[in-house]
Specification:
Layout: H1 2-26, H2 31-52, H3 56-65, H4 67-88, H5 94-101, H6 104-110, E1 116-121, E2 124-129, H7 134-155, H8 160-188, H9 194-219, H10 225-252, H11 257-265, H12 269-281, H13 289-309
Antiparallel strand pairs: 1-2
Organism: Bacillus xiapuensis
InterPro entries: EmrE (IPR032713)
Keywords: Membrane, Transmembrane, Transmembrane helix
Amino acid sequence: MKPILIGICASFFFAFTFVLNTSMELSGGSWIWSASLRYIFMTPLLLCIVLFRKKLRPLIDEIRKKTGTWVLWSSVGFGLFYAPLCFASAYSPGWLIAGTWQITIISGSLLAPLFVETVYTKNGLIHKRGKIPFNGLLMSLIILAGIVLMQFEQAKRLPMESLLLGVIPILIASSAYPLGNRKMMDICEGRLDTFQRVLGMTLASLPFWFLLSLYGFFTVGLPSKGQVFQSFWVALFSGVVATVLFFKATDMVRGNIQKLASVEATQSMEVLFTLSGELLFLSLPVPSPISWCGILLVVLGLILHSYVSNKKEPSILKKSAA
């Protein structure tokens, strides 16, 4: 249950992304700078934390061993996740982005066969190819059904172009984020703690962000002071606090595909937190009764997902947290 609670806390801080990105877009800021500034600001923040903990040297050694692999999967997990998410903010409101983003719950479950699951049985330690957790996937569908209800009335008011440009990039991001995160967990094999892994992925993804920044400089010019300020808060709350919490939760259930999918399902709470933030700070209309029914479905689906993922299988003994 602890990884679930940590995942919910992470989703609260992740919600700052959707609210502040919408705010920056409404004030005329470019999605290019919203994306790249977050990770540029994250670098010194995380570097200070890891230096204070005296764990920078082991991280550098790990990156040197497989530099190309680190750059590749960090660019997937961070670059192909956040750049499309910010691009979508230029065409869709935060509530629609946060709602569509929950497709990552299903994406994470469908990625299971690409990874090896480690379990302890009566016959000893076994490494086997992961299977799609269909029970958990069914609970994910309940969560998504709730999200559809939440967004139904608002989505039908948007033009088709905004829907497509807001949805397609998020579909890309929803697969890239769990894929990059899981690949890096496999590569690190528990040798790095959460702060080290997040800093390592941030450093390894910097070439992606520098190239995007260069593109932004020649196409839209430099960002405004307001966008720089808001991007810093996104970097702090969402980039550092939320990412570290979420990676900590996934590290705790590393090797257990079902529980990993359950932790990833906590991201559904981002919709509720984003909706609350936009109601308070961006004067969004109060949700309709249909939307409130959707909210209840999301919460119910999350509870059921947690219950299903924690059911003991008779042939598998519980593995200690990594």
